[in-house]
Amino acid sequence: MNNLVRRMLLAALVFWIPAAADSMAQTKQDMKAVHARLAQEVRHQLIMLSSYSVFDNLEFEIQDVDTVVLSGQVTRPIVKSDAERAVLSIEGAGKVVNKIEVLPLSPADDRIRRAAYRTIFTKSGLERYGMQSVPPIHIIVKDGNITLVGVVATEMDKNLAGIAANEVPGVFKVINKLATERK
């Protein structure tokens, strides 16, 4: 190759590489915006489910461009199917992978759920969480074990909820996965 052709190719690369990088950065920003909008809509749809209760935990992850992976635990099969149907109705959600676990029927677990609800939401300092239409503390009971999920205002509230759950008779173990708004 002669020098002129080499210089022309080099000049073209010098201009093309930054343009390609800018284009890729814009594409990544666009994808983040699409994911953020889709995540907000999925979260809204799941919270608005009439069958969703304090004893259910619905989570999701967005993969690729438009795949929503649902996970968590629910006490009734209808919640699992309602969640999938609600997410499928969202514009921009192409595929839904439903990995939600339906918890087994258990009178002992039902008793623990009711007792944990009463114990946690009547605890001084935590009663405000029980007054919300969708309480931010979710009580998941499986095989006599309680898992607390959701978001509370402070570390103290998180600890109070864990202590209250440990006071419930018949519980084998409490796992406190509550997140806090403030550090």
What can you tell me about this protein's structure?
The chain is elongated and about 85 Å long. A hairpin with a 2-residue loop joins strand 5 and strand 6. The chain has helices at residues 3-47, 77-88, 107-121, 127-130, 155-166, and strands at residues 57-63, 67-74, 95-98, 101-102, 137-142, 145-152, 173-176, 179-180. It folds into two domains: 1-103, no CATH class; 107-180, Histidine-containing Protein, Chain: A (2-Layer Sandwich), CATH 3.30.1340. With 183 residues, the protein is of the alpha/beta class.
Structural class: alpha/beta
Helix content range: 40-55%
Number of strands: 8
CA gyration radius, whole angstroms? 24 Å
For the largest beta-sheet, the strand count, sense and barrel status come to:
4 strands, mixed
In DSSP terms, counting alpha (H) and pi (I) runs of 4 or more, how many helices?
A: 5
Order of helices and strands: HEEHEEHHEEHEE
In short:
This protein is α/β, with parallel strands linked by helices.
Walk me through the topology:
Blueprint: H1 3-47, E1 57-63, E2 67-74, H2 77-88, E3 95-98, E4 101-102, H3 107-121, H4 127-130, E5 137-142, E6 145-152, H5 155-166, E7 173-176, E8 179-180
Parallel strand pairs: 2-3, 2-4, 6-7, 6-8
Antiparallel strand pairs: 1-2, 5-6
Helix pairs in contact: 3-5
Task: Give me some keywords for this one.
elongated, Histidine-containing Protein, Chain: A, 5 helices, four-stranded mixed beta sheet, 2 domains, alpha/beta, 183 residues
